[in-house]
Fold:
Amino acid sequence: MKAAEGLDETVVTAAADAAVETIQREMTSFARRARATAGRMHPELSLVSYTLLGHLEERGGCRATDLAAHYALDKSTVSRQVAALERSGLIERRLDPEDHRVQVLHLTGTGTEILAQVTESRREAFRERLAGWPEEDLARFASYLLRYNAAGGDEPISGPSGD
Structure:
């Protein structure tokens, strides 16, 4: 009986390992597709820029250091992204009313409009891709993504190529 139990555990482990490998491969493919399609949604808005704008909108503004900490990005990376978004007129710096030594990043009117346009384009792309899915599958997929992301904490997952 013990040998059979050990065999069952090995099969389950092999099946789980195969499932994890498939998940990793498919999530990498998803990330690559998201980066590739971001430029088609708006030529000046990379996936990173879109994400940063979304965060600024959601938070009502924040400091660049807060963006770096939230996304586990290097401050110089965020600084370059912020500079590009400022040059494009999508964000602006404002003094923090509570601490005039601090500058807070906010969306401009143009930034708000472009973010709304790109968000709607992305929603439509997801709707088209998921059009044939039953409502129960959509709900299950959404709950799995929420569960996965909630369990991951703030540590980014990356492979050898940074994906």
In short: Strands lie at 91-96, 99-107.
